[in-house]
Structure formats: C-alpha cells, structure tokens
Specification:
Bound molecules: 2-acetamido-2-deoxy-beta-D-glucopyranose, copper (II) ion
InterPro entries: Cu_amine_oxidase (IPR000269), Cu_amine_oxidase_C (IPR015798), Cu_amine_oxidase_C_sf (IPR036460), Cu_amine_oxidase_N-reg (IPR016182), DUF1965 (IPR015328)
GO molecular function: copper ion binding; primary methylamine oxidase activity; quinone binding
Shape: globular
Enzyme class: oxidoreductase
Radius of gyration: 31 Å
Number of helices: 17
Pfam family, one: Cu_amine_oxid
Mean pLDDT: 86
Protein name: Amine oxidase
C-alpha cells in the first residue's frame, strides 16, 4: 500500500478512534513522548494532521497514529513499547560521492596561503612588507591571497579531454602604502618552487594603475578612529546638548561614526561623508543630524582634515564654526533624539512587539528526509550531485560562494555562475543619504559570510560546509557557512486530472538549494541557487538586516517614511549582478530575442461578424449592398518574432514590457528532435530591475552593468568580472569598466556570458523596523530549458504518481513507482549551537578567540563604524575593519 493513501483513512472512524485513544491517554510511551503530549493537550489534532499532508515533519505523530491501523503493530500493547514499533530513520546520513575531476576552482588551504604569505615576506621578493595587522597607511601590506581562476580552455581540456590538470596560480593584492599604489600580483605555478614567479596582474583591469585612494578597508583603522575622536572629542559639550551623547574615542562613547561611499571619483583624492549614530542596539536606526565631510587622501593621517560640517541643513566650514554658532545660539535646532527610549524597538527582542499568537508555543513544521538525503557531497572537492545535476563550489573573499561546471543529465549547461557585485544607491535631503552608493564587493561578501543559524537560516537537516578566506589579518574559517538541502516545494511540478489511460497524476516538486548568507554591516544578503527536476536553475537574492536609517523631518517625505520619532528609512535601489557563463550543448552559443508582437492579419475564413468594420459603417454598406468581405476579414493577434542578436552592439538588454517575450541562449548547430536549437531561456522571476538613476557622477562608469536588466558578451579570460573591489571608489575611472566589454564582437555561435541583475527598488516602510523582510526584499531569475530537450525530462522522477480511473465500484489504480515513505522516527535534533569565527594569524597559527567587542569590529564595516573600538583594538585578530 502506498503511503499517499495512508493519509486518507484518518478521516474515517477507525482513525478517529485512534485519535481519541491518544487523546484519552490510552496510548502512551511512543518514541517521542513530548510530541505526543502535545497531541494529547490539543483540541486541534485534525488541523495538525491536515498540516501533515504538507509537512512531513510531523509525520512521527502520524506514524504513531497510523501504527494503530497497521496490522503488524495493531495493538495498544505494541505501541506502549513503541521504540520497536516505530524505528529510528536510519539512512539520513550524507552519502559521499567522488568528484570525477579535481575541483580546479577551489580556494587555497590554510597551508597554501600561509606558505604564500611567507614567500611574499621573503626579502628576495623586495616587497618591503609590514605585517598587515600592524601596518599603518604608509606601510606595504598584504590585503588578500586567493586562488586564481584557471583559463577556461585549460579547464575544459582537463575536464573533457583528459589533458593535465591546469597549473595552479594564486593572486595577491598588496597595498603599497610606501609608494601609494596597489598592485594585484599573479603568483605561480603552485606549489611554490624555483619555478614560481610573480608579476602584476593587469590584463583584467581597464586602467594600468590601482590608485591607493581607492584602497579597501585596512585591518588597522586606528587612524580614522583617531580623526573622529579628534573632531568630536572637543565638541563633546555640543553633541551632548544637541544629541545627548559624546564621541571622544573611548570605550564608553555613546555616539559612534558611520562612513559612506564612494570615497573618490577617479582616485586622485579620498573623502568621506561621516554620519554619527547613537551607540545603542540597532544603532543603524539611530542616525544623528550631523554630517562631516573628511578629506582622508593619501597615507599621512596628519594631513587628514574636516572639509565641512552640516547640521540640520546648515553648513559650516569647520568644527570651530559649528561650535561658534552653537555658542552664539545661532543654530536652527533639529529635533533631539529620544534618549530614554527603553522600548528596544530597534532590537530583535519580542518585548513591546505584540502579543502571543494562538498555538505559537508549538514548534512549527520542519523538513525531514525520512528516506535519507537524496543528494551527495564530495566534501574534499566541494562537489555536489542531485537528481541529474552536478556542480563544483568555489569561494572567494569578494563575492563569496560560486558554482562551476554545472551538468544536467550528463551534459554541461553552465560553466560558471558567480555573483559579481551588489550595489545600493540612496536618496535623501542630507549629505549622508544623498551621496551613498555602496558596492559591497569592496567590503567582501565572502569576507562577510556568516555562520548559518541551523534550523533558522536553513533546515536542520541541511548539510553545512565551511568557508575559508585569507586576507590582511590572516586566514579565517566560518563553519556552517554554506548549506545544501533538498526541500519539498509543496506544489506539484506538474499535474493533471484526467480520465483516459495515464492522463492523471503529479510529480512532487522537489528542489535542491545551496545557500550562504553574508552580513555586510547593516545588511544581510541571502544567496540562493536552487535546482529543479526539469533542469531549471533559480538564482535568488533576498535581503534582511537593518536599514541605513536617516534622520526624519517633513522635508524627507519624498525619500522614505518615518519609522520612529526621529528615524526614517531612506529610499534606495539594490542591484546585484551575476555572471552566468552558459555552455549549451557546447561552448558555441547564440543569443535570440523571442519577442511577442501584434499583427493585423486577414484570412479567407474569417467570419465577417468578427471583422474590423464598425457597426455603423457595416449598416451603411449593407444598405448599399456592398461586398463586405475584403474589409471585414482582418483581425489582430500576437505572434513570436525571433531575432538573433548578432553582436555586442545590441546586447545590452531590457526585459520586454509586460513580459512579452524572452531571451534564449542556444546552440544553433544542435537541435532537439523537433528541429529547434537547443537552448536555455532567461525567465525573469521576482523584481528584475535595473538602476533607476542613470545620470549620476557617483555611478558614472563603475556600475555600467546595473544600467540594464541584462547584458550578453563574448567570453574572454581577461574579462572575468564586471566589477572589482576598487570600483566602489572609482566611478569616474573604474578598474573595471563594464562597457569596455562591448567592442562590437560577434555573438553568433561564440562562447557567451550573460550578466544579469537582481535587485529591488527599496521603499522603506515602518515594517522594515526592526529589520527588513526577506519576503518582499527578494529578487529571482529562472534559467530554464527552452527546447533543450524533446519533452519535459522531470517525467523521469520516481517521486510521482500515476492514477487511472477504476471501473464502477472498484478502487483507483495507483502507481507510485514503488517509492514508499518510510515509517520511522527522525533522529533527535541537536541542541542549537553556534561557533563564531575561527581565525588564524598571518603565520597560520590559531588566533585566540575574539571577544564580543572585537567580533563587532570584525563584523561591522564602514557602514557602521565604531570609532571607540578602533582606538582600543588589539588588531592582530581583526579580519577587516573600516577606517571609521
Ligand atoms: C595602526 O595605525 C596607527 C596609526 O596609523 C599606528 O600608530 C599603529 O602602530 C598601527 N598598528 C596598530 C596595531 O594599531
Ligand atoms: C619600506 O617601507 C617603509 C614603510 O613601511 C618605508 O618607510 C621605507 O622607505 C620602505 N623602504 C624601501 C626600501 O622602500
Ligand atoms: C568614560 O570613560 C572615561 C575614561 O575611562 C571616564 O573618564 C568617563 O567619566 C566615562 N564617561 C562616562 C559617561 O561614564
Ligand atoms: C536647505 O537650505 C536651503 C537654503 O540654504 C534651502 O534652499 C533648502 O530647501 C533646504 N533644504 C531642506 C531639505 O530643508
Ligand atoms: C576552503 O579551504 C579550507 C581549507 O582547506 C576548507 O576547509 C574549506 O572547506 C574550503 N572551502 C570553502 C568553500 O571555503
Ligand atoms: Cu534595501
């Protein structure tokens, strides 16, 4: 008997008897008595059981109940010793697999990175390096050590042709403070030997130099913290009066600083608008109405200074002028923030946030693979297989998790999916909001990846993988940084009700998701890659975390909504760019726009009733006995207009209005059985936007990818990425100018890359407080087979049902392919644990654990900035810290 039918008898009398047995306590001692107790106490057993149809999680309860009906455990006495009656699910452990090839995109191990670091330190290299954790702005220090992606031709020769594994290379970014330049070096071959050399890696950038003024955030942010303290320490009486707090550069500071970006236009200078905030939980939502523009150009902090200050829309040339206006009582004051607000509104505490909801004391449903996990992982090679898919994982400091060599049913469909950049551009009346454009690659999505909260960020039964990076302050490993899980989409992927033979049935909509989450200062980015049984891959980005709060006053209404007494959420755009290197039936692919257009057409068979003649005209023509046929035979309808986009001159694209059409990547030389080129379509999902503001110096040339929904280029090894970690500060002269990829090259049967965007126009509302919601702040795209196959290949799935109608009086003919839902109790969940960052010093030795203050410094980038932390910091363990 199939499990599906097991559900049904619960509606019959014997099941009700079973339930009442449980309810009256006659059945007890089931494997998980706690769960049963809940059933006993509940008046809504049936609701729970209905929920069970959707969520296997509660099936243990169901199992116990259905056991009553099973002939082989038919008595109460059996149930009372039910550990025998309901066995533990045994096969839930991860199954291994051996990757067919080595993962050539894998990150460097701790050992490899430490050896490279020592090699760079050797005097023969002539780099004059200072240990990164101790370096001041004017020292030379390592910023990054990372594996370098092999050339695609070498990779394919290895993967497909049995050629030797490509030689391994690393690259290392060194901030040469002594000469005010940054150099990205290519180092190899690895492992280190006599043959290993290093040279500047310039061919992937669009300017010969990387200006020091565009540098990333050094681990030693002391200088910036000192500057803030130097500016606001002497103003302590003023800030106390206006805002009720002080920023003296001490551990007990009640005000902290928060920087913004971009800090430069072309790299000739570095200047920052710094905002101040109350140093309370949820500080991102406690901005103060004072903004300071600092010049922090070059490497000599002694030259850094205030350019101007703005308080409540009044501008001052210096802190002294500001103080003078305050002393003279000339300040037009803005509303002072509430200081005695103990409501915790900006925290995640449930206190003051509503009342208990019915049944909410119960643990909600959870996802359990009763029959064992259905995917395999090669942990060493970071290789995953599931339901015809296979792929390798990579991980990098800049953008985190990436996917390589994605096969479906034995064929490569995508060579690479890598996130490229995540931008956020803000609006507002104050200088902080109005000038902010964050490009989070600079802060490092990989560097900011966080340990997942098991059971909250991903299902408890997910497989969790670690991630390691090697940056200025040494190496660090996040446990549980990546999760892999199969989920029940809870809707059939396909279904039909029918009456003729084999017309009726359904396929369960199972999906495999790979997820990692990066918290970059205030914001949390959830990166999802979801594989589906028909060959579809969904790329999804969801956001949560704190808004970058602005100071509310009535003049701000055009730019957001008030969310508290003096706080608003500011209007902003998020645009996140992805590189998708399709290889559909080989590397030679073409791009087709298959658009819907209207046509006016006449057909001889068109009934004149439906022709295009106005009723008045028709009446008159009939009066004069005219022949109506020629003019009444036209009508309009839509048609598909297929247009190949032949060159890069035409390949910066928007999705058509009203979804009228789509873009397809196909191999014109490979056809399915019906003569159509085998392809994959790019199917917009939620919120596929591009940047709204297309006319802004702050986004002039550094985010050109964000100005279209998607773009297609011919693939080149020297165009690996649409952005770089320095693009954030170089809108006028970026290290990577995406438009330079477009030089008229042919896209006709070439190796193509699709650069597509996800994002949201984020109009903050009260419900963004305390933190933004992932249901609305989400964006997705589907990459879906488009005549790639001859039919829907998810029909292979055995987790499917075929139903045939019975003869009168007989039962329906059920075929579930022999797949049975096991009758077992899932293993007990482990207590929730959380580890935190595992850090290694630059010499590769484990660093002592960081305290909370230090972890905050590590975790909160320039978006938050905590100046007092910078002053008191033992920087040796700090991963990456902002200048303020
Ligand atoms: C950090 O920078 C400051 C000022 O630039 C310098 O005095 C200090 O030695 C550096 N190192 C540490 C570990 O703070
Ligand atoms: C080495 O770097 C230091 C700063 O860390 C600088 O003062 C010194 O001049 C540099 N030496 C050479 C030989 O470049
Ligand atoms: C903050 O700390 C400093 C130095 O430890 C001390 O002098 C000052 O009184 C403290 N301020 C407050 C408000 O506790
Ligand atoms: C700021 O002040 C200027 C005059 O100095 C005025 O034109 C402008 O409207 C004010 N802006 C806001 C947002 O109050
Ligand atoms: C990176 O390298 C480390 C050390 O070899 C390893 O533990 C980790 O799992 C690797 N994977 C990722 C995704 O960082
Ligand atoms: Cu947002």
């Amino acid at each position: 008997m199939s499990s599906g039918l097991d559900y049904e008898p619960l509606l019959h009398d014997d099941a009700k008897t079973a339930l009442s047995d449980i309810a009256s306590g006659r059945i007890e001692g089931v494997a998980r008595p706690r769960t049963i107790t809940k059933v006993v106490n509940s008046k809504t057993v049936f609701a729970l059981l209905a929920g069970l149809l959707l969520y296997p999680a509660v099936s243990c309860i169901f199992g116990a109940i259905s056991a009553v009906r099973e002939p082989y455990v038919a008595s109460d006495s059996v149930l009372s010793t039910s550990t025998e009656a309901v066995p533990l699910c045994e096969t839930t452990d991860l199954l291994s697999v051996t990757a067919p090839r080595k993962n050539i995109w894998k990150n460097l191990s701790l050992k490899e990175a430490t050896e490279i670091r020592s090699w760079l330190w050797e005097t023969e290299r002539g780099l004059n390096l200072t240990k990164s954790a101790l370096a001041t702005e004017s020292d030379n220090a390592i910023f990054l050590i990372e594996a370098f992606t092999p050339r695609k031709s070498d990779a394919l020769a290895y993967l497909d042709g049995g050629a030797a594994i490509p030689a391994k290379y690393a690259h290392s970014i060194i901030n040469h403070g002594s000469s005010e330049e940054i150099i990205d070096y290519l180092i190899g071959p690895l492992p280190l030997s006599e043959k290993t050399t290093m040279r500047p890696l310039t061919e992937i950038y669009h300017r010969p130099d990387i200006p020091y003024n565009a540098h990333g955030f050094n681990p030693n942010g002391t200088a910036m913290g000192l500057l803030l303290a130097k500016t606001f320490g002497p103003l302590a009486d003023v800030t106390m009066d206006l805002f009720g707090g002080v920023a003296r550069g001490l551990a007990n500071d009640t005000i902290i600083g928060g920087g913004n970006a971009p800090l430069s236009y072309d790299g000739t200078w570095r200047r920052m608008w710094m905002g101040l905030k109350l140093n309370v939980p949820g500080h991102y939502l406690f901005p103060l109405d004072i903004y300071t523009y600092f010049d922090v150009s070059g490497t000599d902090p002694a030259l850094w200074h205030v350019i101007r200050m703005v308080y409540n829309n009044q501008t001052f040339a210096s802190p002294e002028d500001f103080r003078a206006a305050w002393e003279k009582g000339e300040l037009k004051r803005s509303k002072k923030p509430l200081l005695d607000d103990a409501s915790g509104w900006a925290s995640r505490s449930r206190v003051h946030k509503g009342s208990k909801r019915d049944l909410d004391e119960r643990a909600g449903p959870r996802s359990v693979s009763f029959d064992g996990l259905r995917f395999r992982v090669d942990q060493e090679e970071q290789y995953i297989t599931w339901m015809g898919f296979s792929f390798y994982l990579g991980f990098e400091r800049d953008m985190g998790l990436n996917l390589w060599d994605i096969h479906f049913r034995g064929e490569r469909i995508i060579y690479e999916i890598t996130p490229q950049e995540a931008m956020a551009q803000y609006s507002g009346t104050d200088p902080h909001q109005a000038t902010t454009v964050f490009l989070d690659r600079a802060f490092g999505m990989g560097q900011s990846v966080k340990e997942l909260m098991v059971g909250y960020d991903c299902p408890s039964e997910a497989v969790y993988l670690p991630a390691t990076i090697h940056t200025a302050a040494g190496s660090s490993t996040r446990l549980n940084a990546i999760c892999v899980f199969e989920k029940d989409s809870t809707k059939p992927l396909s279904r039909h009700t029918g009456w003729l033979k084999d017309e009726m049935g359904a396929i369960k909509g199972y999906e495999l998701t790979v997820r990692s989450i990066s918290t970059v200062g205030n914001y949390d980015y959830l990166f999802d890659y979801t594989f589906q049984l028909d060959g579809t891959i969904e790329i999804r980005l969801s956001a949560s975390g704190y808004l970058q709060g602005g100071v509310w006053n009535d003049k701000q209404a055009d730019y957001g909504h008030q969310i508290r007494d003096t706080t608003m959420g500011s209007l902003h755009d998020h645009v996140i760019n992805y590189k998708v290197d399709f290889d559909i039936a080989g590397t030679r692919n073409s791009l087709t726009a298959a658009m819907l257009e209207m046509e006016e057409i006449s057909q001889p068979w068109v009934d004149e009733d439906w022709g295009r003649v106005s009723p008045i005209y028709r009446r008159r023509m009939i009066e004069v006995k005219a022949d109506l046929r020629p003019i009444s035979q036209t009508f309009s309808q839509q048609k598909i207009v297929r247009k190949k986009i032949l060159t890069e001159d035409d390949s910066r694209l928007e999705y058509p209005k009203n979804m009228e059409g789509n873009y397809v990547i196909s191999n014109e030389d490979a056809h399915n059985a019906w003569g159509n080129p085998r392809g994959y379509a790019i199917h917009p999902g939620a919120s596929n936007i591009h940047l709204t503001n297309l006319n802004c110096k702050r986004t002039q040339d550094n985010v050109n990818w964000a100005k279209h929904h998607l773009s297609v280029t011919r693939r080149h090894d020297n165009e690996p990425s649409s952005s770089s970690l320095w693009n954030i500060h170089l809108p006028g002269k970026p290290t990577v100018d995406f438009y330079k990829f477009f030089d008229g090259e042919s896209l006709d049967q070439e190796d193509l890359v699709v650069w597509l965007n996800l994002g949201t126009h984020h109009i903050p509302r009260a419900e963004d407080s305390p933190q933004t919601l992932t249901n609305v702040a989400t964006s997705s795209v589907l990459l879906t087979p488009f005549n790639f196959n001859d039919y829907d290949v998810s029909m292979e799935s055995m987790n499917a049902i075929l139903l045939n109608a019975p003869k009168p009086g007989q039962v329906w003919d059920v075929d579930e392919n022999g797949v049975k839902v096991p009758f077992c109790v899932p293993k007990k969940l482990k207590e929730f644990t959380y580890t935190g960052l595992l850090s290694f010093d630059e010499d590769g030795s484990p660093a002592s654990p960081a305290d909370v203050l230090e972890q905050r410094k590590i975790g909160e980038h320039v978006r938050s900035g905590s100046n007092q932390a910078d002053l008191e910091c033992d920087c040796s363990r700090v991963l990456a810290r902002p200048p303020c």
